Amino acid sequence: MHPTRLSGTDMPLESQANGAHDQTSCSNRILLVGINAKYIHASFGLRYLYTNLGELQDQAGIVEFDINQRMVDVAERILSRQPEIIGLGVYIWNVSQIKYLVQLLKKIRPTLKIVLGGPEVSYETNTQDWLKGVDYVVTGEADVTFYQLCRNLISESHKEPEVHPKIVHSPTPALSEIQLPYHTYTDDDIKNRIIYVEASRGCPFTCEFCLSSLDVPVRAFELESFMEAMKKLFDRGVRHFKFVDRTFNLNIKTGTTILQSFLDLYEPGLFLHFEMIPDRLPEALRGLIQQFPKGSVQFEIGIQTFNDEVANNISRRQNLEKTRDNIRFLRQETGVHLHVDLIAGLPGEDFVSFGQGFNQLIELNPHEIQIGILKRLRGTPIVRHDQTYNMVYDEEPPYEIIKNQHLCFEDLQRIKRFARYWDLVGNSGNFIGTVSLIWSKTQNPFDSFMAFSDWLYGSTGNRHGIALTKLVAYVFHYLTEQINLEPQTVAETLWVDYQRTGRSDQPICLRPYLESVAQKQKSQAGSKNQTPKRQRMHQD
């Protein structure tokens, strides 16, 4: 429920936070409900709330669902537990579903106490009319505040209730007051889901598009206790750890301790995901990073823009020269998988400037370039640019920008398609050798891939649902018919890429050119390479 940036997921099974999945209709006075995005994710925030319920914990439970389930069925499952209080975390990915779910629950059982938290309701609460239908909204980091509210409500259940404010503002808790939740990950979670962890909360930066800019200062959990919890997870079989810290490398002592501890534990299959400050990578960290085997570590690096004026507009402090140097080092001298972010639609950045930033990243050659579209998240100060740059956003989640002074609606639509197709072709690992052929005649990756994107959309009419074999055919025809590359070379390059994960069927468009080509040896799919599939696809 606290607004720490956490991913969501769909979990069709109900799960008791004490480690046992329960598909029966046991009752809980307090029920923590997750409406997640995908099954592979586990609701980190709910596990914190459950762990910090103190003496109320034995009266509480966790159930998790996904955004694709019918909310009327979700309501039935919730009410079968006979809860008196339910807590719901509201995020950008589930707010539409939760609005409907709250309406259903109140119609069916008006006496049910509904408590909301999370980033979608922690800010601008007065402008959200639907919140009138809930009993309480807890803003901020609710680890302690939710317990206090539940304790008060339960103690009043047999007497005249006191009047509590509808909006309950959580003071920022000292992390020493918070119990760590890692023991609440079930065996099923460990087997099937991403395991989220955090060594710290907060962010030292003030980037105006990001909720973390409101979450200062950076606070760290006690490191020894945290690493003990990580060791216990490892001993239980966790091999993929996703750190949600915004700045894992801010504190060098913490960063080196975490890396060294995992390096000491290393065995094949270990995979660590971190977000890192791009311009801060001292020698102490570099040396440790170099010791990890290829593909066992992933860094998510938020560049967002290479335009200094735009960076200044959004209060983003970044040494671009150091950033470039660090990315070159990581790409050329380590086995780290690099996932680098750009954002389109920032105030002051036009089409040409955004393209130049993309081209700079292509030159640096990270494994993946994630192109995001600017979102107006509730509470973020990005709104101060609305009039100056004519920033216009969609009012429905995920609140993406639809036009501004420098990018018209049509330009942003083209960039959104570009981002989707780049994910299919540039990021997926299915076209590692082929993708650079798209700009082989122009040496301008952005303009060339945009031309391909425009052509592909004109040919398919959609951004989704393109099967890989069909995409291979589209790429082949574009390269040979639109930019006139030699068909035999294109076919052989595509064929090598197509086999990377062990595929042996020959796409129809390539068959005439492969008759004289010996089938390449199947790649390592099916071998004992335990690196996650998406990262494995980018390995040489």
What does this protein structure show overall?
With 540 residues, the protein is an alpha/beta fold. The protein has three domains: 14-172, Cobalamin-binding domain (Rossmann fold, 3-Layer(aba) Sandwich); 198-407, pyruvate-formate lyase- activating enzyme (Alpha-Beta Horseshoe), CATH 3.80.30.20; 429-540, no CATH class. 35% of the residues lie in helices and 14% in strands. The strands form four sheets. It has a seven-stranded mixed β-sheet with strand order 1-3-2-4-5-6-7, sandwiched between helices. Strands 8-11-12-13-14-15 form a six-stranded parallel β-sheet. Helix 1 (44-51) links the parallel strand 2 and strand 3. Helix 2 (71-79) packs across helix 3. It starts with 13 loop residues before the first strand and ends with a helix.
Summarize the structure.
Helix content is 35%, strand content 14%.
Structure characteristics:
single chain, 540 residues, alpha/beta, Rossmann fold, pyruvate-formate lyase- activating enzyme, 3 domains, 7-stranded mixed beta sheet, 6-stranded parallel beta sheet, 35% helix, globular, disordered N terminus
Topology:
Elements: E1 14-15, E2 30-36, H1 44-51, E3 60-66, H2 71-79, E4 85-89, H3 95-108, E5 113-117, H4 119-122, E6 136-139, H5 145-155, E7 167-169, H6 187-192, E8 195-197, E9 200-201, E10 219-220, H7 223-235, E11 240-243, H8 252-265, E12 271-276, H9 283-289, E13 297-304, H10 308-313, H11 320-333, E14 337-344, H12 351-364, E15 368-373, E16 392-393, E17 401-403, H13 409-427, H14 445-460, H15 468-482, H16 487-498, H17 511-514, H18 533-536
Helix pairs in contact: 2-3, 7-8, 8-9, 13-14, 15-16
